[in-house]
User: Fold this.
Amino acid sequence: MFGATMAERAARTIAPMLTRGASRELIVAASGLILLSRFVAVPSAWLVGVLLLVAVGLAALQVLGESDVPGAAAGVPVELLAMPAAAAFAAFGAIRLVPVGVLLVPAIAAAAWLIARTLATETRLLAAPAGPSSADRTAVLVQALVVAFLAFAGIAALVPGGMPEPGSVATPPVGPELALLAAGDAIIAFLLSYRAAALRSSNFRDVAWFALTSAIVVAIGAAALRVMEIPRLLGPALLIVVFFLWDAVHASQPTRRRDPRRIWETLLLLALGIVVAAWSIRLRG
Assistant:
């Protein structure tokens, strides 16, 4: 009851931001679940987060599909679901950084606003008759960076030892913990990179390749930064730099002529992955 009341207040706070294609019920339900997840222990919280990500993605499909914008009649592209789903998961993780108390109210309001903002952006893009404009691409990139930072920080908070304190002498997480940290960041990077690449190309192979390589780069970066004991939020912030630079390097329209470059990128990522894995094992020993 307490969680539902706070979620409803948050929904009323961001109500003016909602477009016709967005559902207030989706915002309230997602916000309420995010709030309640704050009181769930970490092992079980991961299940809540995964279910939230999937549920918001499916709900966004229904919301966008039932909207009265012209593009909805032709079907909802799958990439339009990635940002709202990732935003909900990012809020779910970042709420773990907020102490239990009155600060949860503005935190839930901000989470609700973020989900509503991403839904509004995707609704506008679905209705655009001439495709995304330069301003639309910028808006999606900015939202992706905000969501990515919150998600990376939240995932670090969910992993035992994932966010070291300054001067800490604790052993860096290895094995399952480090793999969980890297895998969580990689999944978020894949979703956001797929969304960004879909604005530049309609070729599934090119979009999927960029999203996959971006996920691998972020996973390697997450593991390396944690092994280096980067303290607190500085690690997620540096990971955002990695994510942004990889997107900037591949921002031009993908072409088939880049196939040889893809081979070199794959070999480089494989080598970096081996180096980071060997480094973490050596530090553990």
Observations:
- Residues 259-284 form the longest helix (26 residues).
- Residues 10-22 have pLDDT under 50 and may be disordered.
- The two ends are 50 Å apart (CA to CA).
